[in-house]
Each structure stands twice: as structure tokens, then as C-alpha cells.
Specification:
The protein has 426 residues and is α+β, with helices and mostly antiparallel strands. It has 3 domains: 95 residues, no CATH class; 188 residues, no CATH class; 105 residues, Lipocalin (Beta Barrel), CATH 2.40.128. An 8-stranded antiparallel β-barrel has the order 1-3-4-5-6-7-8-9.
Length: 426
């Protein structure tokens, strides 16, 4: 392949003659211009200074429009608000953006009957998509490099004690990723490297190719394990393909057809040489800024993490209701089998039928009370005592009855998943 050194020189005669884009290319550009500008708001707004309320309002309006479409177009009952992007209201809003972009492309095509091209406008759109993709993938990369994504790089205790058959497909994937810190760091490094390369024009294509591989894998994992961010991953993959698209034919010539190729002419963002030099000097600053923006809130969250007073896996040795000890029958739907207190102030209570209820919990060490609460508004407040490090006693009212629960601490290292040794050879 010929040198890809970026030079803002006049077009060669061969290139200069190609001054008009084909009609299909012009229409496609108009569509992607409208779609990426509209979709990019939800990526960039969280990082724009003093735009927090505007970002929140954008999301609320997105949900409101999606739910209106559910009720009045699809005539379906109102839906809840599951986490992730795979929500019917967000899917419908994304389809609405596609529809708006098609309309914009058609109207633009009718109004702009002349031929020509959009080389300079394309250069700006190309740069905008690079910035949006870089900041989004820096966030994913940092989340894996730091102990942040996948439960901070540790399998939660409440997932550790759950039977494999009781896991959701996403839970199974998260356990796999949370267990292997080295693999999470490897995946994060790939995403981070691709994002960094996107920030510089000379290496943008290489960064996009790296991210195409990474995002194709992420999207496939999301589909295979039913992770609720398939829509977001698909949009990011389309962005990576858009950035790599101008060089795909050249790469195919070299890698597949064993043919020589010429450098691709780069249309500068600015006509002024002074502004072009300023842009070149600002590229490292932009890269540092895009890398820092998603990192800052993660570091803040990690600094605010405080270990709870109660932590660990506790098996129920004895359970008394209204002064009567309840035998540990597997068919009992009210007796507890296990209570788990997690570092993230999350707790789970497992019944004898292995049904699990999840809570947020807070402890008052002076009053010796623990408060369990759910998003539905249900809550429990129990008094606790620790006779020793190996035992815990809970007392309070559960389901209208006074209960006393005696529990025994189970060290997490007794589970094979956490004490298995890595072996290079068997």
C-alpha cells in the first residue's frame, strides 16, 4: 500500500475529474448526516458542560415519544421501564429517527436537484462520528480497565451462591466476565486502543477496524446472552463501519486482491492553512479530553464506595416465627435459606424454594438495625446482633409475624470458583 501520509495538497488530475458523487451516494450521505446528528445528541449531551438537565430532558422526551407510539400507534398496553436500551419505547424512538432521516434525505434531494458533492460537509460529519464513537468506546474501555463494569471485577456473592440454572443468560455472561479480571482488562484495552486511534486522522481507519471487530463481538454476545443493550451496540457498530467505509475498498485491494492502491485524498476541515495547523495541534488535546470525560465520573463513583458494616454469605441455621421454630422444608415458601450482604450495599434473601429477592440495604451501627428496601417500596427493618464473627442474629417483623433468624457465616473462598488455581498445563 502506498504511504498514507496525510497531505492537504491539490487534487491530482485523476481525482479532480471525479467532482460529482453518484445520486445514490448523495442520498445516502443526506440520510446518515441527519441520523448521526440526531442520534449523536444522546451520546454527547452527558459530557457537555452545564447540559445535564438538557440531557435528562432529552431522555424523558425520548421515552415519552416512544410510549406515545406504543399506546397510540401500536395500540399496546403501557410498558414498564427495564434497564438498558432494548426497550420498546427506545426501539420505536430509534425507528422514528430513521424515519425522520429518510424524510430529511428525500426533501433535501428534491430541493438540491443539482449534482456535485458534499466533500467538506462529509469531512465534518466524519469527524463528528469519530468523536461520538471515541467517547462512547472510551467509556466502555475504561469500565473494563478499571474495576467498574461487571460488578467491579468481582463475582457478587449473591451470584456466587446461586445455582447455575437460576441465572439469567445475561447473569451467566456477567459472572464469566466478572470472574476473569485479565480478560476484562484485555477487552477494555482493545476498546480503549481503538478509541485512541480514532482521535487522530491518520490512524482513524485502523481504530475503526479494531472497533469493528470489538463491537461485532460485543453485539454477538449481547444477542447470544440476551443483554439489554443490543440497540446501542448496533448503532456503535454502524458508526465504526461509517468511519472505516472510505478505506474498505483500498484495504480489500491490499489484503484480499494483492493489488496496489493509492493514498486516499483527505479533504481538510478548514480552508485556511492556519486553522489546519491549529487543528493538528489540537488533536492530542481532543484525545486527552475525550478519554477523560467518561473517566471522571467512574473515578468519583469508585471513591464514594464504602464497605458496609454487614458483609458476606450467611446460611440460616434456625428460623423462628412467632416463637415457633420452622423446619427447613424445601417446599416452604416463607422460611429463609440464606442471606447475602454485598459490598455495593445490595442484599439478597433466598427462600427454601431458591426464590431470590433482591434489596438495597443500609445499616445503623449505633442502633444495630439493618434496613432492606426494594424499588417497589417494600421494606424490612430488622435488629441485628453479632455474637461473634461467625454468627449473625436478625430480629423483627416479617409478613406480619415476629421472626428470629440465626445465621452462620460462610467464607466465600470455600466456593470452588474462587479458590481454583489457573494451570498452564494439565
Amino acid at each position: 500500500m502506498a504511504s498514507s501520509h496525510t497531505q492537504y495538497t491539490p487534487l491530482s488530475p485523476e481525482i479532480g475529474r471525479v467532482t460529482e458523487w453518484p445520486a445514490a451516494q448523495r442520498v445516502a450521505f443526506r440520510f446518515f448526516f441527519a441520523y448521526f446528528v440526531l442520534y449523536g445528541l444522546q451520546i454527547l449531551l452527558p459530557y457537555v458542560p452545564f447540559a445535564g438537565s438538557l440531557n435528562d430532558q432529552w431522555f424523558l422526551e425520548t421515552v415519552a415519544i416512544g410510549r406515545w407510539l406504543i399506546l397510540h400507534v401500536l395500540h399496546l398496553p403501557a410498558h414498564g421501564s427495564p434497564s438498558g436500551t432494548d426497550r420498546l419505547d427506545l426501539f420505536l424512538f430509534d425507528l422514528l429517527l430513521v424515519g425522520i432521516s429518510i424524510v430529511v434525505a428525500l426533501v433535501w434531494s428534491v430541493l438540491a436537484r443539482h449534482g456535485g458533492n458534499y466533500r467538506r460537509l462529509y469531512a465534518w460529519l466524519y469527524t463528528l462520528v469519530r468523536i461520538m464513537l471515541a467517547v462512547a468506546m472510551f467509556e466502555y474501555g475504561w469500565g473494563k480497565l478499571l474495576p467498574y463494569q461487571f460488578w467491579g471485577g468481582k463475582v457478587p456473592l449473591y451470584e456466587l451462591v446461586r445455582r447455575v440454572g437460576g441465572l439469567t443468560p445475561q447473569g451467566l455472561l456477567w459472572v464469566m466476565m466478572g470472574f476473569s479480571r485479565s480478560y476484562a482488562i484485555f477487552a477494555g484495552a482493545i476498546e480503549w486502543l481503538g478509541s485512541l486511534l480514532l482521535c487522530f486522522r491518520r490512524t482513524a481507519t485502523l481504530g475503526a477496524v479494531i472497533l469493528i471487530g470489538a463491537l461485532a463481538n460485543v453485539l454477538m454476545l449481547n444477542v447470544a446472552y440476551d443483554v439489554g443493550v443490543k440497540l446501542g451496540a448496533a448503532n456503535l457498530l454502524v458508526m465504526a463501519l461509517f468511519v472505516a467505509a472510505p478505506d474498505l475498498s483500498r484495504l480489500a485491494k491490499v489484503l484480499l486482491l494483492n493489488q496496489p492502491t493509492e493514498p486516499r485524498h483527505i479533504v481538510p476541515l478548514f480552508g485556511s492553512p492556519q486553522l489546519r495547523r491549529l487543528r493538528s495541534l489540537g488533536a492530542p488535546v481532543l484525545a486527552a479530553l475525550l478519554a477523560y470525560l467518561p473517566l471522571s465520573p467512574m473515578l468519583r463513583d469508585l471513591r464514594q464506595t464504602h464497605p458496609p458494616a454487614l458483609f458476606g454469605i450467611f446460611e440460616v441455621d434456625s428460623f423462628a416465627r412467632s416463637g415457633v421454630r420452622i423446619p427447613p422444608l424445601d417446599s416452604d415458601t416463607t422460611r429463609w435459606r440464606r442471606v447475602v450482604f454485598e459490598q455495593s450495599h445490595r442484599a439478597s434473601i433466598t427462600g427454601m424454594t431458591d426464590a431470590v429477592r433482591f434489596y438495597r440495604f443500609t445499616t445503623d451501627t449505633s442502633a444495630r438495625t439493618v434496613q432492606f428496601s426494594q424499588s417497589t417500596g417494600d421494606s424490612l427493618q430488622l435488629n441485628y446482633t453479632r455474637p461473634d464473627e461467625e454468627h449473625l442474629e436478625l430480629r423483627g417483623v416479617v409478613g406480619g409475624d415476629r421472626v428470629i433468624v440465626w445465621l452462620r457465616y460462610i467464607p466465600s473462598v470455600t466456593y470452588r470458583l474462587l479458590n481454583a488455581r489457573h494451570q498452564w498445563a494439565w
